[in-house]
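forwarding from the other thread:

> can someone predict this with MRU?

sure thing
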Amino acid sequence: MPEIVPLEWTGDALRVLDQTRLPWEQSFVVARSHRDVVRAIRDMRVRGAPALGVAGAYALALAGRELNASNLRELQASLSRVGEEVASARPTAVNLRWAVDRMLRTASSCTSLAELPKRLEAEAVALHQEDVAANQRLSRLGADVLPQEGTVLTHCNAGALATGGYGTALGVIRAAWEQGKRLRAMVTETRPFLQGARLTTWELLQLGIPTQLIVDSAAGSLLAQGEVRCVIVGADRIAANGDVANKIGTYSLAVLARENRVPFYVAAPTSTLDLSLPSGALIPIEERSGEEVLRWGEGRIAPAGVSVRNPAFDVTPARYVTAIITERGVAWPPFDETLRALVAGGLPREAVMVVAPHEKAS
Ligand code: MRU
């Protein structure tokens, strides 16, 4: 089965698999400048927190070649301005800001104008490779947490498309399936952008994993009827106390999971942790255009003139989260302790793995 490649560096441009066209057609946008990358991010041709980080890094690599400067200081200052433009293209996913900061640190460590473009390119490529490796590792760790069989509910798209490659929440389902666990994926359609209906089902069908698509509002009753063994989602930003910002609708699913004693897992690389924020209340929540809500394909679904709110993300309080699966280990509550320990140097083995936690849902 060929791997899904959401982002490909060609040596002088970033080739972006256009996620607005999936699943109907596989077409690509070729970003040759940092502005092209910013446009692709804003238009959601590339989306998903880790993928935004990777794309943001390549945007800086492209800027390192484009910008004219007569000396190193001038180029570093221009890059900082570009960094702001890139990081603010989508504000909730901290991976974007994290990647920009890493690229700017690389730029500041350069000692000559001539070395800077090559160093930035090498850093972006390294960041991309590290993201894929982190996703593969967290997926292996997370696979052990999933039940041997049954239905796993997921929301939005946290697959290869949302990352540098392989995926996070969907990567965990994939790794568990490849380990021989007899799972079915239940996928919420994820209004209004339909990441679940368009993208997650597309990935799961290619992986050969049994998949059922549901409308977002069906999740509650299916959880109540005992059809779901656990819920697993990705994240756009995780605060120091374990509060999780993720696609709008995640909070409702987490509350419903708790009500029905179903474990609720979050899978994300440590680049999604923002330990500078004590709680999720401080996470900026992107509001997108009302047009996304008003339109279905080419047609309108609501009367002209109606007012619309379109928050793209919500924050799930840590108390609803059973565990946070990262490439450095699986963190269990109390997250304010375990997340810090995990970033500082990993967790002891017993904190990383607990026997069949799905059997004792909180
Ligand atoms: O608006 P999107 O599609 O960029 O939102 C993406 C999500 O919320 C994902 O669930 C999250 O980024 C995790 S991706 C591995």
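The mean pLDDT is 95. thats all i got for now
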